[in-house]
Amino acid sequence: MIDEEELLKIDSNCIKYSKNEEYIVFSENGKKYTAQNEKRKKVLGFKVDGGYIKENRTRDKKCDYSLIVNDEICYLIELKETDISSACEQLLKTIESMLKKHSDMDKFLCRSIHSRINTHKIENENIKGLRKKLKKINKKFYNPKKSYIYKESKWEEII
Predict the structure, then answer these.
(1) How many whole angstroms separate alpha carbon 11 and alpha carbon 46?
(2) DSSP letter (8 states) at residue 99
């Protein structure tokens, strides 16, 4: 699993949260993801694209943020304008990239927050591919209603 020490070696500026904060907030351009840490679990929140993963290839963009809870569950968060398909592709590429470095990771939850959602683009091949990958990795932990959630503008959940 990814830990703070590894992130410090890559880029200390990519770490946003590293203790047991009650609220973890990632936001940009009017989109906002909030995790409420009621039980004060150990968390590690960090910038992924351009932080933990530094790749200059536009076609291989990764998700915006990650939140690791109790060294066990990895939340991947993408803050996007309207393109759900592109968000799913970035989340999928992030999972693949993280698994190359940490094959022990087996619990991913993906979130994409959009300024607006085009309903005609929902349930395309990228969404199906992401859900299929999550089901394969997460095995017994997989829950189709929780493994990938997309919302408009903001999303808050208890972790």
Answers:
(1) 10
(2) H
* Predicted confidence (pLDDT) per residue in 30-73, tens digit: 999 999 999 999 999 999 998 888 876 656 789 999 999 999 99
End-to-end CA distance of the chain: 18
25: tokens are 């907030």
**Where does the chain have alpha helices with state H?**
4-11, 84-101, 125-138
From 132, 67, 156, select the one nearest 148 (Cα to Cα): 132
Strands 31-36 and 43-47: unpaired
Amino acid at the residue 111? R
Apex 26 CA angle, 104 and 108, nearest 5 = 20
